[in-house]
Write a structure and sequence with these properties.
about 160 residues; about 45% strand; 1 helix
Amino acid sequence: MAAAPLPRTGRRLAIAAAIVAFGTACGDDATGVPLRCEDATRLQIGETVEGTLATGDARFAGAFVDYFAVHVTRSRRLMVTMASTEVDPLVLVFGDEGTVVQQAFQPVGSPPGTLETASLARAFAPGCTLLGASSWVPRAEGAYTVAVEPDTTALMPAGR
């Protein structure tokens, strides 16, 4: 079966282009800031922080990004959630080499003012893990929250 052609104009083209751009983001390098935990805002487990994506922020694949460092003393499963009524959330987890090893995004452009969230769960190794809070829409600006919580979904019995 042949692949459907990409749309040539309109909103569907913009969505398709954004998905293609971020679909290849795993392995892309960030620009504008060294990817070190020392240079990122520390985010405690159980904490929710407010941030704003804006001109002057570091950039990743054409989008503004804020960096957060999560420190754990023992391996544990955590849930990272980004929420916003102003930008389409994109959560990034960076590996040791500064490349994206996991991402979650909210690709369905909801009406302005609608709360959108992007969440991911993963095992965090002891030490520091660098996270990115961004938008899958390049150059999007706006307020957001990001939180790191223990992942309780792994404890739920199947079928519930």
